[in-house]
Amino acid sequence: EKHAAAPEMAVAYHTRLEGLDAADEQAEADLLATFNALSALRKGKGSAGNLAMIRARLAEDSQLLQTILAAQGWYSPAIRSRIDVPKDKAGGEVVAVLSLVPGPRYAFSEIVIESAPTDPPDLVQRNLGLRVGEPILADRVLAEEARVAVALPENGYPFAELGERDIVLDRDKGTGRYVLPVRPGPRGRFKGFTTSGKLAFGADHIKVLSRFADGELYDSRKVDDLRKALVATGLFSAVSVEPQRTGQ
Fold first, then answer.
1. What is the pLDDT of residue 8?
2. What is the pLDDT of residue 125?
3. What global pTM score does this model have?
4. Strand pairing partners for 83?
5. Distance separating alpha carbons of residues 245 and 234, to the nearest angstrom
6. Between the ranges 6-15, 25-34, 199-208, where is the mean pLDDT highest?
7. Measured by CB atoms within 10 angstroms of the end CB, which terminus of the chain is less buried, N or C?
8. Residue 163: is its pLDDT beyond 50?
């Protein structure tokens, strides 16, 4: 006589996070809230099919903690995980424990911009608001690089490109050397228009709508202003206004 296998009992657990308080007090972001919002253990709502599933969630949350801490400047935390099973398996919950030591919070030791000369000479430096001694924060690095990417075409460099940053960490000193390659490209001035596609009017009328003159230093804000003026006519289904290299 065959008997159906008994259904596997779900394992009840709760999560304990140890050692995050010290880092959370220093961080600009709320580390605990970020962890709670993304944690696989928290999403499991205290129930798993078996212990192996809890171990998998612990591994996922260990990686999550590393990512959260790195974004706020802690690049070498020590993170350990374990499962505490009650001696009396019939009573009490399993405890999924994440224990961490954040380690040093890394700060910039040097900020290097590798770029061809610009006019003015400090155009990149004054728009990259990173400073030696500040914590290495991922969001701040991205925001400051975005400022540079916007500032260059607003100041005569329509073809500027930012290369891939490099941050070399010194684990003994808890510091990082930041290097940003910048390719400003040629400094340009406005000189006429070329058009393509189905046009409601020609280049002469486009020149009337523009708020810049030939010979004026290139400024991406004025180009965007022209695009908005063309859209506002209601005569185009799509409009793109882009600088073109002339070799002059």
1. 56
2. 95
3. 0.80
4. 96
5. 29
6. 25-34
7. N
8. yes
Helices 138-154 & 51-71, crossing angle to 10 degrees?
A: 40
- Alpha carbons 109 and 206: distance in angstroms, whole number: 50
Q: How does strand 175-183 pair with strand 107-115? A: parallel
For residues 181 and 162, give the distance between their C-alpha atoms in angstroms, rounded to a whole number. Answer: 6
Q: How far apart are CA 63 and CA 153, in angstroms?
A: 39
More confident position, 86 or 124:
124
Q: Which two tokens stand for residue 37?
A: 């919002």
- Strand pairing class (47-48; 11-18): antiparallel
Please state the separation of Cα 207 from the chain's center in Å. Answer: 39
Angle of helix 51-71 versus helix 31-38 axis, rounded to 10: 140
Whether the bond between 243 and the residue before it is cis, its omega within 30 degrees of 0, is no
Which residues lie closer than 8 Å to 71 by C-beta, 6 or more apart? 29, 137, 138, 139
Q: What is the C-alpha to C-alpha distance for residues 3 and 235, in angstroms, rounded to an integer?
A: 76
Q: What does the block give as tokens for 78?
A: 């020590």
- Using the Cα atoms of residue 102, residue 107, residue 113 and residue 118 in order, give the sign of their dihedral: positive
